[in-house]
Amino acid sequence: MDHIDLKKAITKGETSLGIELGSTRIKAVLIDHRFRVIASGSCEWENRLKDGYWTYNQEDIITGLQLAYRELKQEVERNYGITLRTAGAIGFSAMMHGYMAFDSTGKLLVPFRTWRNATTGAAARELTDLFQFNIPERWSIAHLYQAILNQEEHVPHIDFLTTLAGYIHWLLTGNKAIGIGDASGMFPIEEATYHYNSLMTEQFNERIAANHYPWRLEDILPKVYLSGEQVGELTEAGARILDPVGDLQSGIMLCPPEGDAGTGMVATNSVRKRTGNISVGTSAFAMIVLEKQLSKVYPEIDIVTTPNGSPVGMVHANNCSSDLNAWVGLFREFSEAMGYETNFGKLFSVLLNKALEADPDCGGLLSYGYLSGENITGMERGRPLFVRSPESNFNLANFMRTHLFAAFGALKLGMDILTDNEAVAIDSIMAHGGLFKTAGVGQKIVAAALNVPISVMSTASEGGAWGIALLASFMVNKDEDESLEHFLEDKVFQNVEGQEMAPDRADVCGFEVFIERYRRGLAIEQAAVDHLLENGRG
User: Which InterPro entries did the record assign (predicted)?
Assistant: First the structure.
């Protein structure tokens, strides 16, 4: 499409808008009917530790949503000379899991508790035993049950429990709805019915019956929808929330709100069985679409679903690139102190490429980038840690490689369960996230960690906002009875270029040496958790 055609498409609403609230950035993208991004906007935000919980202020959620949309709108005006007033469809996605509980008036009862909290260990263990199904600490039902175990005052007043994406959708449409992928991180899904597992729902209700709450679990959870279904329209009030200036029209159709895991699958064309994807950022997760059920319950493996309801084995590491980013920030501070103004992106690229010059096993160095607790290794709290012995080969290349290896350490331990213990077949793994912007480096490290070929598409940097925009487009542009798999393969990704990188044997062997050091050193990390207080003293 040329510039004039794009201008007409925007004016007529022949577009799809996707907005995703990630852990550090809120991004909005507008795509045309060929699925190309024609405008985007974003804003940075950050969680905070408040009263023992990782959270985002409710006001910041709305403000961030508005800022990202406003920047996208300004880009449309700047590039096409028109005011954005409509779209063919809209979709919202956000970080999965967590806890947003509201009363009957719509009041948020406690501050939003994000996926990052590792405060629900007792609840997760009890529910896993009750259901004989792995319930991770970050799941919404674990947060709810922990609040019950803690006898928190707000619990009897709950009228609606949802995720961040579900909250945004409800706020802008009035519908208490959720996409099946996001729902599968709240409560186990029944594959035959595409809804919450009825047996487990009743087991939960029986477990809490003695509390005599005025609600049953099925009454407070959002209704589950599959990809391709329409779930309400943008209300007049919703349009004013998203665009306070008043230009955006109401009545635009919305697709089911999804979690970042689901949009990552869509953005990497990984919804077909035996395919998988890896998403890296503040956290890291790998998702493999399963052909069959796992032989037993593993606390390291979540069972979630694709946006069209297929079961997925998900390994979710709470920590990935945050500590690496902090070290790069320290190097930038040093550069500036020396009088050199350094572009952060260039500095990141230089330092990451330096890791390619390192010893395969990082020269005996060790790091744990745990800013928060890590469920896979059983750490309840985070203590970033760097360790070396006097004999270690301590240089910049090994230092950077260590932090890259450590970023995927917990993920590696979880993925080994799927590939080694369960012999899960994987035809392809697609990778996406900011770490892959530095060509070849992150891809090479992940290939070594998992010992499988890793592909990065030319669209990898578009991320989850593009993924939810694709789901919105699927809702309005799919052919009759067309599946999500065929829509993605035949229309979206048919001509998308990708680069596959096979694992290097020396890198694989080096990572195996490093991961054994990583396993043995967990006792050091646990000691730091036990003895180093929150303020770094003690």
Answer: ATPase_NBD, FGGY_C, FGGY_Carb_Kinase, FGGY_N
Distances (CA, A) of 445 to 263, 281, 394, 409: 23, 15, 19, 11
The per-residue DSSP string of 202-228 comes to HHHHHHTGGG--S--HHHHSPEEE-TT
Q: Is residue 225 part of a domain?
A: yes
State the CB neighbour count (10 A cutoff) for residue 470: 32
DSSP string, 10-67: HHHT--EEEEEE-SSEEEEEEE-TT--EEEEEEEE---EEETTEEE--HHHHHHHHHH
Phi and psi (nearest 5°) for 66? -65, -40
467 part of a folded domain: no
* 148-205 residue pLDDT tens: 999 999 999 999 999 999 999 999 999 999 999 999 999 999 989 999 999 999 999 9
Residue 163 belongs to a domain: yes
Residue 36 near residue 77, CB atoms below 8 Å: no
Domain limit, last residue, from 238, 259, 280: 259
In this predicted model, what pLDDT tens digit does every residue of 78-90 receive, in sequence order? 999 999 999 999 9
Amino acid at 312: V
Could you tell me the pTM of the whole model?
Answer: 0.84
**66: Cβ–Cβ under 8 A, 6 or more apart, which residues?**
241, 242, 243, 244
Rounded Cα gap, residues 407 and 510, in angstroms: 15
Residues in the chain: 538
Report the C-alpha gap between 113 and 167 in whole angstroms: 13
Residue 288 maps to a domain: no
Same domain, 171 and 36: yes
Residues 135 and 129: beta-carbon distance below 8 Å: no
Task: Identify the residue whose tokens are 């290349």.
Answer: 397
* Structural domain boundaries, residue 354: 322-407+505-531
- The pair of three-digit structure tokens given for residue 522, joined into one six-digit string: 């967990």
- Quick one: 99 and 232 in the same domain? yes
For residues 217 and 331, state if they share a domain: no
Question: Are 216 and 187 within 8 A, CB to CB?
Answer: no
The Cα-based distances of 188 to 199, 381, 425 in angstroms read 10, 26, 23
Neighbours of 148 (CB within 10 A): 17
Q: Domain total for the chain?
A: 2
Residues 255 and 367 in one domain: no
d(CA 301, CA 168): 28
Which residue, of 232, 259, 286, is where some domain finishes?
Answer: 259
End-to-end CA distance of the chain: 63
Give residue 538's pLDDT.
Answer: 46
Which one, of 118, 114, 81, lies nearest residue 7 by Cα? 81
* 195 three-class SS: strand
